[in-house]
Amino acid sequence: MNRYASAVLAAVLGFTFSASAFAVKPEDAIKYRQGVMTAQGWNFGAMGAMMKGEKPYDKAEFAKRAENLAALSKMALEGFTVEGSDKGKTKAKPEIWKNMAKFKGGTEKLASETAKLAEVAQGGDMAAIKAQFNETAKVCKGCHDNFREK
After folding, report:
1. What share of the chain is helix, strand, coil (3-state, %, to 5)?
2. Cβ distance 120 to 132 under 8 Å?
3. Which residue has better confidence, 23 or 1?
4. In this prediction, what percent of the chain has a pLDDT beyond 70?
5. What angle is formed at CA 106 by the lines to CA 73 and CA 138, rounded to 5 degrees?
6. Do the beta carbons of residue 45 and residue 20 sit within 8 Å?
7. Rounded CA separation 85/76 (Å)
């Protein structure tokens, strides 16, 4: 795991363990999930640039970013489970809390697809990588379309 992913993981674990010792404020939950989503975008954007040919493909970098994304994909849901985090400075739609089962299913699907992406990225087969990248992007888009304000 690279330094960036290690730092994010350390911060998340620190927050998670300290959160059990005190009540998490809704605004902190919002910041947490926005931080995770920003990190997801950082990694997905770099991979997307490689897939579009805007940046040269680098197998090692792509694989690292796919691993980062797979780890991050399991983290955001926690920030949506804090009571009151549906209000505040957020682009999250109320539909998340009205249909948490569907939202949770989407986060589980993202975790599954990003794990597959990390696996195929290790092999270097561009056809398989592009196909799985596109499947992963569809899951991201579906969640954004259903649960995120534009």
Report:
1. 75, 0, 25
2. yes
3. 23
4. 85
5. 85
6. no
7. 13
Give pTM, 2 decimals: 0.83
Cβ–Cβ < 8 Å for 39, 2: no
Beta bridge partners of 148: 92
d(CA 53, CA 40): 20
Report the length, in residues, of the chain: 150
d(CA 85, CA 40): 20
State residue 19's pLDDT score: 47
User: What domains appear along the chain, each with residue ranges and CATH number?
Assistant: 3-147 (1.20.120.10)
What integer pLDDT is reported at residue 113 of this predicted model? 98
Long-range contacts of 113-121 (CB under 8 A, 24+ apart): 113/139, 114/66, 114/69, 114/70, 114/72, 114/73, 115/70, 117/66, 117/69, 117/70, 118/63, 118/66, 118/67, 118/69, 118/70, 121/59, 121/62, 121/63, 121/66, 121/67
User: Could you tell me which residues come within 8 angstroms of residue 68 by beta carbon, excluding any fewer than 6 positions away?
Assistant: 1, 2, 4, 5, 8, 39, 43
